[in-house]
Write a structure and sequence with these properties.
By secondary structure, the protein is of the alpha+beta class. The protein has twelve helices and twelve strands. The radius of gyration is 21 Å and the shape is globular.
């Protein structure tokens, strides 16, 4: 037979995953192997609870990460990206389910994936409840793994952060990224393929390869105190499409966000990428976060408090613009200033 799924190996691998999930959080009421996960939800602290749902995958960064045996790293990428998309609504992350699709199952790799996903969830106060691991030799080539995950979060309806309260005169704060996060990796892999020496090129104190594989930063621990204080009017996770195609998703129809690109603290890795790719600034901004992984919008009277809280939480946070009257667009002025330029 050309294609054959080894059911015994798959079952053994899945049973071993209980080590990373069973008994780790008392909100999870059953064990690995059940048809679905039972999660105990305490609603006593909510008047009008709203569930926040999202599904995510780490894109083509997972190809590079698996090639370089950085499996745990890309799992943290995926979970952090997922949680960020949930928390920008003001939500508390509750439970995550993972998905692993492969052509031929290697139990050791599956264990590494689930262990890393569970650790990433636990660090943010949520729980990996299980998910699906499937071997599909007629769909996915042997040696290839495709990862995905979904999250459930919760927020009090009156505390949802969706941008609807943004007003002209508000302050736009940029929060630093840890690098590329999980966008632009088709380009990165092409650059590495075209220049064999690029991987070892120095970027500050690390190599180019280490810089582009730096895990996606998770902002939940730094933001949750601001949720409790109701200090924020809008949050945007800056991913594919850059600031223009992410910040506009939360703007009311009667305002624009005016972003001062000269205020950006651009990390050195983006200077190297621009030099190697010869992309225009517009293309760089459209492909990458350029050092700002999250945008927070707040009233001017709370801006100093928000900045102080974020910087005290080990974030690099600074003003990058303001909200003005408009039509729901993001307008950029001035130009990016690259390190060493």
């Amino acid at each position: 037979m050309k294609y054959r799924v080894d059911i015994a190996t798959a079952n053994k691998a899945k049973s071993d995953l209980s080590t990373f999930i069973d008994g780790k959080d008392n909100r999870l009421l059953n064990k690995v192997g059940a048809f679905a996960s039972l999660f105990s939800l305490d609603l006593s602290r909510f008047k009008e609870p709203v569930l926040v749902l999202k599904t995510e995958e780490p894109g083509s960064k997972q190809v590079l990460a698996f090639q370089q045996d950085r499996i745990e790293s890309v799992c943290f990428d995926m979970i952090h990206h997922l949680i960020n998309d949930c928390i920008v609504m003001g939500a508390e992350p509750l439970a995550v389910q993972d998905l692993i699709v492969c052509g031929k199952m290697d139990p050791g790799i599956v264990k590494r994936v689930v262990s890393a996903c569970a650790a990433a969830c636990q660090a943010q106060g949520c729980v990996l409840t299980g998910g699906e691991t499937t071997e599909q030799p007629d769909v996915v080539p042997s040696g290839t793994y495709i990862l995905g995950s979904s999250i459930v979060g919760i927020v009090e309806r009156s505390r949802i952060i969706d941008g609807s309260k943004i007003r002209a005169g508000d302050v736009v704060i940029g929060v630093g990224s840890s690098g590329l996060h999980t966008n632009g990796y088709t380009l990165i892999r092409d650059l590495l393929a075209r220049n064999e020496r690029l991987a070892e090129k120095c970027v500050g104190q690390i190599t180019f390869l280490d810089a582009v594989l730096e895990p996606h930063r998770c902002y939940y621990q730094s933001l949750k105190g601001l949720f409790e204080a109701e200090s924020l009017r809008g949050l945007a996770h800056i991913t594919g499409g850059g600031v223009k195609e992410n910040l506009n998703r939360i703007l009311p129809a009667n305002v624009d966000a005016e972003i001062d690109l000269s205020a950006y603290r651009v990390p050195e890795i983006f200077s190297v990428i621009k030099q190697e790719s010869r992309l225009s600034d517009d293309d760089m901004l459209h492909t990458f976060n350029m050092g700002v992984g999250l945008i927070a919008v707040c009233s001017p009277d709370l801006a100093s408090d928000v900045l102080g809280h974020l910087n005290d939480s080990s974030e690099s946070a600074y003003v990058v613009g303001s909200i003005v009257k408009g039509t729901g667009r993001v307008r950029c002025k001035d130009t990016l200033r690259y390190p060493g330029a």
